[in-house]
Design a protein that fits this description.
single chain, alpha/beta, Aspartate Aminotransferase, domain 2, 14 strands, 37% helix, binds pyridoxal-5'-phosphate
Amino acid sequence: MKSEELFAYAKNYLPGGVNSPVRAFKPYPFFASKAEGSRLFSVDGNSYIDYCLAYGPLVLGHAYPPVVDAVKKQLLKGSAYGVPTENEIKLAKEVIKRIPCAEMVRFVNSGTEATMSAIRLARAVTGKKKIVKFEGAYHGAHDYVLVKSGSGAIGLPDSPGVPEETTENTILIPFNNKEAVSDLFNRESEDLAAIILEPVMGNVGCIPPKKGYLEFLRKITSENNVILIFDEVITGFRIDAGGAQEYFGVTPDLVTLGKVLGGGFPMGALAGKKEFMERIAPSGDVYQAGTFNGNPISITAGLETLKHLDRKFYQESEKKGLKMRRGLQDILHDLSLEYQVVGLSSMFQLYFTPSEVWDYSQAKTADTDKFAQYFHSLLSADVFVMPSQFECCFISKAHSLDDIEVTLEAMSDAVLTAEKKI
Ligand SMILES: *Cc1c(COP(=O)(O)O)cnc(C)c1O
């Protein structure tokens, strides 16, 4: 069956035909048949240069041979034990070596679980209830944070089924705005347990922190006994070996990790200061558990993946990212368009708005109709970028400079299409 037919068929059995909302782009998503390196193949016989990369995990590209080999070996030895393994210690040590704030780690199964557990821990440690999140930030699909999220949740500021009692303890403020934070702290720092943020927002496009903003958050939280949580589910191991906290030189109290950490398999982690982490059961009283926590397959894939993320990898990511962003800028310049090219390291996005984008409300000025034209023009040229204006595209180790050049040519036509010039 072809994708169009499969999608119609899938809708009978899976809500909306998919298992995660953002995948259901219009008119129908292509169904995957296989993937390798920078390419994702569809059941329709197309081969796309992939900048979605499963929404972030695949920094090395699809089916990276050393990861495939390591996982094959582990698979023959069993896929779940229910008792600990030495590799869990090894991966924890690798995380601790790389991520500045990490002194101890709890492995979980997804980024969602990681942020849920981090928030619970922050509330337990401080004995306070309220948490602060930024408009447009996405921290997974659980109740605490499902308030004006990014990703598929945009436009659903509050999902039905989330009790008001849950979200009344979640305070929303705009990103990159010091005053909003100061005002809030003046009003209610006594009730605030934590600030959770994506240090580079990656679920409403791509929004970096303004200079000095992370330092400001670090200072004000330290002074007020509020836990600073960096949600580095996207940025962790992607923009630098030590994630955004190394890239920007600001160390939070807790970090949540996921995506890249599992090397293409389901995984998340919560890490931070030992005194906080030791509050987690069974060494402490804060409950956290999971049948598949520290699953040997994901742990093996993560261990093998991190081995390939050396200095050279980050230098090349930066180089490829720059080539993509500069190329896009040149395209806009040649057409006298004032749209925003954003991103850093291997992250990039083009916002169809002349407004600078430093927060959610500015991101929302982007023209999503134009973006949709751009997306579909790229798709017909065998380039798969994120299907939403409010996501961030990724480049992997497997992407060649050639791939990027081919992509830029397609982007030039795609922008013209969006402008209805061809
Ligand atoms: C993807 C993402 C999550 C959720 O991770 P899942 O593994 O999808 O549950 C949380 N935070 C951020 C910043 C993310 O990008």
